[in-house]
Write a structure and sequence with these properties.
Elements (H helix, E strand, L loop, with lengths): L4 H5 L21 E8 L5 H8 L4 E8 L9 H16 L5 E4 L2 H5 L2 H16 L3 E3 H11 L4 E6 L3 H13 L3 E7 L5 H4 L4 H10 L7 E4 L10 H8 L3 E3 H13 L14 H4 L4
Parallel strand pairs: 1-2, 1-3, 3-4, 5-6, 5-7, 7-8
Helix pairs in contact: 3-5, 6-11, 9-10
């Protein structure tokens, strides 16, 4: 049923159930997730709302931290504080610093400094995209991997360094060298599948598709089917890590279709 079906099929005098909105999202969610995303990101919100369980509400705060706004954390501190404090007004149960490149750019120590800052300013538990990716790679026992991104090579190099600092072996990486979000979002899911297949490497444990503002999440199932290896994507990993943390507040839900091996054992 599409978003407008209710208005077409329900008499004017009828009203929706108390627990449900016209678009099918629950008005009183079991848990709330807060995302701090780059200001140019246009795909995280629709993807999270599409794949997340109905009783998980998604709230976002935009921050100028990528592209031409890319800055070291020392110059982002005030902006991160303000963004997290404003997002905290929505009473999320968990806050995510949600940008792969930004959360990896200054290594694991830099990532932890940002999370500590958010926790201190809000009193709310926080995770990062980088941390969720590491947890997902470990859950799938991916040690040797191929990294694929839309970024320039310099950004890839920071991500390789981040992962290597934590003991992962990036045996091959491909940076498409695209010029920012306008180009990132134009790459179709089938193209990400083609890129993964053409950059397959023997002996790897899996593949990491990096970036929160791409259609990569829609290619996970086809890549896993083609290469017979698990795949981790930035948005998929954050959704998985968030659901694991918020599960006590949520109704038991079935594995989320289309998101690969990572989601299969979410209830275990």
């Amino acid at each position: 049923m599409d978003a407008n079906a209710f208005s077409r099929t329900t008499p004017p005098s009828a009203t929706p159930a108390v627990h449900s909105s016209v678009r099918g999202r629950l008005e009183t969610p079991g848990a709330r997730l807060g995302l701090i995303i780059p200001s140019s990101n246009r795909l995280s919100e629709p993807q999270f709302n599409h794949y997340a369980p109905l009783d998980l509400a998604i709230h976002t705060m935009r921050l100028r931290m990528s592209g031409r706004w890319k800055r070291p954390f020392s110059k982002l501190i005030i902006d991160i504080e303000r963004a997290s404090e404003v997002l905290a007004d929505a009473k999320p149960d968990l806050i995510v610093f949600h940008c792969t490149g930004a959360s990896m750019q200054e290594g694991p120590d830099g990532d932890m400094r940002v999370l500590d800052l958010i926790r201190t300013r809000t009193g709310i538990e926080a995770i990062s995209t980088a941390g969720a990716i590491v947890a997902a790679l470990n859950a799938l026992r991916i040690h040797r991997l191929v990294l694929i991104s839309p970024y320039i090579q310099d950004t890839n190099d920071h991500e390789v360094a981040y992962l290597q600092a934590l003991g992962f072996d990036v045996v091959h990486d491909i940076a498409l060298g695209l010029k920012g979000s306008d180009e990132y979002i134009k790459v179709r899911p089938e193209r990400w599948t083609e890129i993964a297949i053409s950059n397959a490497r023997p002996g790897v444990d899996g593949y990491f598709l990096s970036c929160t503002n791409t259609t990569q999440i829609e290619s996970i199932a086809s890549i896993e089917a083609s290469l017979c290896k698990p795949v981790v994507n930035s948005n998929q990993a954050v959704l998985w890590a968030s659901l694991k943390q918020l599960r006590p507040k949520l109704a038991r839900f079935a594995p989320l279709n289309g998101l690969g091996r990572l989601m299969i054992n979410l209830n275990q």
